[in-house]
Design brief:
Arc Repressor Mutant, subunit A; 8 strands; globular; 24% strand; 247 residues
Length: 247
């Protein structure tokens, strides 16, 4: 398995843990709201909203929740969100944070406090640009009777860099600029996508011993629990055995 596909698989399993902790719905609702506010409430005319709704359905979010989030975002009383990023280090681990917030002072204060409390260091924007590549990542529940070889060839023709099947899931990665074309191709093929997003894939991985790994993941969990933080990326070379150490 190629490195970025393994990373995507680990992230999917981490996402399943996050779902059990009830984190996913809150972040998806915020993404739906900001997408509707910026591009309107019609998903056919708003690709970002269409993607957010697709991911909400993949996370089994009730239809009523989705509709309320759209109405809130498109309404005049929708929050004025700002999207921003922060970068830092935890030892030799790079931490890249994507935020959606209505109060920048609160957000940066909380992030700085978390870094200080857990022994990390908040850096300047751009300091980790060499450490991550922006990639499109699609997670698909493998359909029954799918000819994987033919499916792979079709997606590569549409712009996919890599197609990997494991444990009943197919992970498709592509360059950021091919994300829209690949999403359209999957729609045309009537393939149900459980999750699709632009992710930051690490190019340099950091190995940690088990104790340091547990501390680093606890720190990342603290960041992810912040309502202003949408996504946290890191470059830890995580093993299946270490994933079992996460509470």
């Amino acid at each position: 398995m190629s490195g970025h596909s393994k990373w995507a698989t680990i992230k999917r399993k981490k996402g399943a843990l996050d779902a059990k902790r009830g984190k996913v719905f809150t972040k998806i609702i915020k993404e739906i709201s900001i997408a509707a506010k910026l591009g309107g409430s019609d998903p056919d005319a708003n690709p970002r909203l269409r993607l957010a709704i697709q991911n909400a359905k993949g996370a089994n979010m009730p239809k009523d929740n989705i509709e309320r989030a759209i109405k809130k975002g498109a309404g005049t009383d929708g929050a004025d969100y700002i999207e921003t990023t922060y970068e830092g280090n935890y030892g030799n681990v790079g931490i890249f944070i994507e935020c959606t917030t209505d109060n920048l002072n609160r957000t940066v204060s909380n992030i700085r406090s978390a870094f200080n409390k857990h022994g990390g260091s908040l850096g300047t924007n751009g300091s980790l640009s060499f450490m991550f590549n922006r990639k499109g990542v699609f997670t698909i529940v493998q359909p029954d009777n799918l000819d994987l070889d033919e499916f792979t060839l079709e997606l590569i023709d549409a712009g996919a860099d890599d197609v990997e099947a494991e444990e009943g899931y197919i992970t498709v990665t592509c360059a950021m600029e091919d994300f829209g074309a690949l999403q359209k191709k999957l729609d045309e093929m009537k393939i149900t996508v459980e999750n699709a997003e632009l992710q930051r894939i690490p190019t340099i991985l950091a190995k940690l011993d088990d104790e340091t790994f547990k501390k680093a993941m606890k720190f990342i969990e603290v960041l992810e629990d912040d309502d202003d933080i949408q996504k946290v990326y890191h470059n830890i070379e995580t093993t299946e055995e270490q994933m079992e150490l996460i509470d």
